[in-house]
Every structure is written in structure tokens, then in C-alpha cells.
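Please, structure for the following, as C-alpha cells.
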Amino acid sequence: MRSIASQDVAKRSVPMKKVKYTPEIRDRAVQLLIESEKDYPSIWAAITAIAPKIGCTPETLRAWHQKHLDQQNPIKVQQISDQEKMKQMEREIKELKRANEILRKAAAFFAQMYNEDAYILYDGKLIANIDRPAENFNQPWTIRAIWQIQPNNLPLTWSNFLRYRSSQEAMTKKILAKDQQFEYQGEIVKSSYDAQRVGANFSWDTRLSYSLNVGKANQAILGLTINNIFDRHNKYIAGNGRILSEIGRQYFADITFKF
């Protein structure tokens, strides 16, 4: 008796396997329900009568029938489509946010490696350095002129290079004072970008060269170059946002031999 009872309990404890129905079986079952519905007092009565013949539960057949009705309703189909689109957009937004966060962390990591700021003040607002707008769209226009003078009776050449660059307004970088620096998300904010205008500037470089014959086929060229003749204090905005000064007046003397 104990052996039989234990066998019965074992049989009852075996879980039933979930039956999978192909789309063709589902369609035939729903079609049979629709065709037989008129022979029963209610749709539920038709479902409970037909479900055992197919081998599924009444609730399963009811769910198939309801899905069929939803697919026949254009408004319902549109609602389902809109819901799917919304879910897809939500998934894409989550992926974009995650990717953006990865980029921010990577930017902060490389900023530490290259001693750059992870966060900055830009026009008074705190932003990530990676989000700083580019400034290269606001480059000034430049006029250049070059001419040479070579007297007929002298082995002398006078070369001149003139440049005029217009004024420029851009966001320039400065380092905050120690008492103005602060911490944000574990990073020290110590740089600020503010709008500043750099005035127009003019420069004139010149070079004199004199040729001497040395022997039958050899030649020596004596040269003198003067950069920024007027020694003007010209400024420009570098790619990192800093205002830098160009070189002042410089002199270079050189000798070149041609063989």
C-alpha cells in the first residue's frame, strides 16, 4: 500500500508540459469558433465547447479569438502599432543615454590622462568639457600681400610679406583663481570660458638677400630677415581658447652657399 501511494504521489507531482500551437492551428481554431458561434447561446459557451476538441483550454482559445478581433479593428491595430513605436523609442532613448554616459566617463578618463578639464564654466554655465561648442566657425578674415624688388644693376633682392587680420570675438579660456575653483562629481572645476574680443592686427616681414659670385660656378647669398618690423603687439586666439601673443620684432642673418 505504501508503494502504491508513493507511486500515485509521484505521478501527480509530475508537471504538465506546455503545449505549443502553431499559427496554423490557432487560425483554424479561431475560424472554427467564428463559424460555430451561431449554434451556441453565447460566445463563451461556444469557446467551452470547442476548446476540448482542439486540445487547449477555453482561456487560451478566448485569447486567440480576442487577438483576432483586435487585428480586425483598424483603430486597435493603430493603437498597438503606436504602443510598439513608443516602446521602441523608449529603448532607443535608454541606449542613447547609456552611450552618452559611457562617452562622458571616457572623456573624463582621457581628460585626466592629458591633464584636461572634465567640467568647465562656459559663459557662466557648468558643462562637460566634451560638450563645449567648437569655435573654429568664427575665424577672422585675413589679407596677405607679397612683393619682391630686384634692381637691374645689383644682385640684390628685397622681399616683403604684409598681413592684415580682422578682429575676432570668441570664447576665451582663463584659469579661475584658487578661491573660485570648486568640486563637481569628484572633479575640480578650474577653467572658465567667456566671450572676449581680439582686435585687428597688422604685421610686416621683410628680407634682403645679396648674391656674390665665388669662383666660376659657386655663389654665396647673404641674407637678413626682419620679422614684425613695427614690433606690434599682435594677439590671436589659439585652438585651446587661450589668447596668445605673436612674436615681436626679430632679426635673422644667414649665409647660403650654392655649388
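The CA atoms of residues 212 and 220 lie 5 Å apart. The chain is about 35% helix and 35% strand.
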